[in-house]
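Before any further analysis, we paired sequence with structure tokens, yielding the entry below:
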Amino acid sequence: MAKQMKLVEVYKAFGEAEALIIKSLLESNGIACLLKSHAAPSVHVFTVDGMGEVKVMVNENRAEEAKGLIGEQESV
């Protein structure tokens, strides 16, 4: 039986556009990720009390690397 990978949150974006930028950054550095949201982007285009937030999830064994890349990008 294949071992299941555990996904962990590495970033919380305030909308789909921001999440897609982070996803592109991670994937261009070889880190697969998943975007997780409870709101329909066409309905909630802004964030109110967490609605519209998009969580960027990666495999737990790549989480520190992903956070480092995101941190480097935010400091630019």
Remarks:
- DSSP finds two helices and three strands in the chain.
